[in-house]
Amino acid sequence: FGAKGSYGYGRFVRSWKRDWNDNNPCTVTDYCDLGTCKGINMLKCDDDNPCTNDLCAAGVGCKNNKLNAIGCTDGNACTTNDTCVAGICKGSGNKQCADDNPCTDDTCTAAGGCLNKPNTNLCADDGNPCTEDICSGGLCSHPQSNQAKPCGDGTNPCTTGSCDAGICKQVANENVCDDKNGCTSNDKCVAGLCQGTAFKDCDDNNPCTQDSCDTSGKCTHTPQNQATCKANSEECPIGICQGGACVSQPGIVCEAKYKADLCTTVKVPGACTASGACVASSVPPAYTCPGCNGICVKCLIFQFCISLF
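^ thats the sequence. predicted structure below, dont judge the formating
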């Protein structure tokens, strides 16, 4: 057997000794084997850095070569585009955590990344004066608010608005108001409307005009056409409006007075004119007296001749 710390048979001896050195820095636990110094374990050179190329070079030992432009993870959840730069993993951008929600506070932590924490900020107005616009649970909510408080735009003087269960309710009042009409007086709110009492009489007693009072208080008389009216004519009373005046309606059948002679007037068929005259459509033949060379007159029970010469 060999010396202490060795074993073998005859001339074949293997031994370990602290100061054995195979002159290879990449091995550990060197030993002597048949006269040759050897190492049985390789030196571990991994430095746990993804941005180095780790190796062991003979005669040198461990080498951790710095890398560039290699994708990596820098351990920071708030960076982007992580890349090796001179052996160090670096992020070149910041992670965008904004969720465009006004009801969350958007932050980023290196360990957890984006955090969108709900807040209680004011949010978009829903246009309802009877609700509160506030963030709740990450959403814009509109709970009832301002109970019994006045609301509304006030454009109608005859209603009073107040909040009731989240709704702006308009209730009719009886206030004094102004209907902006110069032809009314004693204006007052009635059933939510401003109403006045008409006081100005604009009737011109002309059936052929439409009489009204404008908002300034001025009477207007608009001529009417084609409306029926009573004409100022005894023979042709059926009239029609033209340009604001009542005229007899032309063509209406009437009875015309015809003077048959000096003593007799008869009624014959006729037609009305716009002037109100009834013009005979046809007349009976004149009376004749035998042997009369002038006007033949028939009066009552006798007739006589009036000579023209």
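Confidence is low (pLDDT under 50) at residues 1-12.
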